[in-house]
Design brief:
Layout lengths: L1 H21 L5 E6 L2 E6 H56 L3 H10 L7 H14 L3 H14 L4 H14 L3 H14 L4 H14 L2 H14 L4 H18 L4 H9 L3 H4 L2 H14 L4 H13 L3 H9 L5 H9 L2 H4 L3 H13 L3 H15 L2 H13 L4 H18 L2
Antiparallel strand pairs: 1-2
Helix pairs in contact: 1-2, 2-3, 2-4, 3-4, 4-5, 5-6, 6-7, 6-8, 7-8, 8-9, 9-10, 10-13, 13-14, 13-15, 15-18, 16-18, 18-19, 18-20, 19-20, 20-21
Length: about 400
């Protein structure tokens, strides 16, 4: 409408200019051709010229329209196909979100060949197929997505890795993510998925190597990151537990913030206790940690930790009785240390006090073994074996 008004204004200006031009002197225009002569005034000649130019303009536009009609019809037909494909895509995504996976797959694939964005169709169809358990179809859609848009390799690969992890195809997911990480090493989501794959595969060296990036970029929540760090470094410690030197070396590679974590320290000391290894540095770590913050699990493990001198260890542990005299874990540990010090009566007292404060299968077992092996009281041993078994069965329900 605006263009038409502009053209009309230009035409009016031209006509007015022509009128002003011939108002004082109409002039004469003569046209002669092969014996034919036409005489007219300048005003009429200008009018005829203007009309001719206007007619020529619209004639040219008409001819251009006729010439462009096939491509215009083709574009119109293509736009209609795009519109239909877009509606199918929208419906497919709605079905996928609402859990109608079979209908979603059908809608997404119905007009994918006519879509202006086939990649979206294929990726969504792959998710719909995965949720139906059709994993071969899923892989086919992902392959078709890559053929439709090879430049979208990262988006396709991330989708493939997500689906593989969801289907517990962790090794395949790791292969996919390793390739993606090689072409996009700073991609945050790829890094996060890679850490998840390492965790599920228990590839502890690879996990602890990538975790600093996960922490620095805050790719997972703090509590989840702590779980991953604990699992990774505990895995490293367990692998290194073939020798005391290897275990201590692995402990030294753990970040200081984790070394002070009671759960990590408890696991380390437990590995030492299982093998019967002693380290004064480890004992000092336990004592400092318990002085700073009491932890029941750590004191229980300390009771199984074989110090160089059991009597000295017992004296250190008994200092906590003033503050934690009714703690069953402390009393159990004191009983175990007393056993190593060959103080059978004191050990019995501590075990019985532990059971009185809070009976546990471990305390019943320890007391039963004391009665059986050192005090030669099989009836008492059988009683506590039975009691410990009953507690163990009750706790497993």
């Amino acid at each position: 409408m605006v263009k038409f008004l502009i053209k009309l204004l230009i035409l009016v200006i031209v006509v007015l200019a022509a009128v002003l031009l011939v108002r004082d002197d109409p002039g004469v225009v003569m046209l002669r051709y092969r014996g034919w002569t036409v005489d007219t005034s300048l005003a009429v000649a200008l009018g005829i010229l203007i009309l001719f130019m206007v007619a020529l303009y619209y004639l040219i536009r008409l001819l251009r329209g006729i010439l462009r009609m096939p491509s215009a019809l083709q574009r119109q037909s293509q736009n209609r196909r795009y519109g239909k494909a877009r509606r199918q895509l929208n419906q497919g995504l709605i079905d996928l979100a609402e859990g109608r996976f079979e209908q979603a797959e059908n809608h997404l694939m119905r007009l994918v060949g006519s879509s202006e964005s086939p990649l979206v169709h294929y990726l969504a169809a792959a998710r719909a197929a995965q949720l139906q358990g059709k994993h071969d179809a899923r892989d086919g859609y992902l392959k078709a997505a890559h053929e439709a848009n090879p430049a979208a390799e990262l988006a396709i690969g991330v989708t493939q890795a997500e689906l593989q992890l969801a289907h517990q195809q962790t090794e395949q997911a790791l292969a996919t993510l390793s390739h993606l990480h090689s072409i996009a090493p700073r991609h945050d989501y790829v890094t996060m998925l890679l850490a998840r794959a390492y965790l599920e595969l228990e590839d502890w060296p690879a996990l602890v190597e990538i975790l600093p990036d996960v922490r620095r970029k805050k790719l997972v929540k703090a509590n989840r990151l702590r779980e991953m760090e604990l699992a990774g470094y505990r895995g490293l410690l367990e692998r290194a537990a073939d020798s005391q030197a290897g275990l201590e070396k692995s402990w030294g590679s753990i970040p200081k913030s984790l070394q002070s974590d009671p759960m990590m320290l408890c696991f380390y000391v437990d590995l030492m206790a299982r093998q019967g290894w002693y380290s004064s540095a480890v004992e000092q770590l336990v004592l400092k940690s318990l002085d700073k913050q009491w932890d029941d699990s750590l004191i229980e493990v300390y009771g199984r930790f074989e110090a160089k001198d059991a009597n000295t260890q017992l004296a250190r542990a008994e200092k906590w009785l003033d503050d934690f005299g009714h703690n069953e874990n402390l009393l159990l540990s004191l009983g175990r240390i007393s056993m190593r010090a060959r103080l059978w009566g004191k050990a019995q007292g501590y075990f019985e006090a532990s059971i009185g404060a809070g009976a546990t299968p471990a305390a019943c077992l320890a007391l039963a073994q004391l009665f059986e092996q050192q005090l030669q009281q099989p009836d008492k041993a059988a009683e506590y074996y039975q009691r410990g078994l009953k507690l163990s069965l009750e706790s497993s329900r």
